[in-house]
Amino acid sequence: MPTLNLFTNIPVDAVTTSDILKDATKAVAKIIGKPESYVMILFNSGVPIAFAGTEEPAAYAELISIGGLGPGVNGKLSETISEILQIKLSIDSSRFYIKFYDSPRPFFGFNGSTF
Question: Looking at the 3D structure of the chain, how many domains does it have?
Answer without folding.
Answer: 1
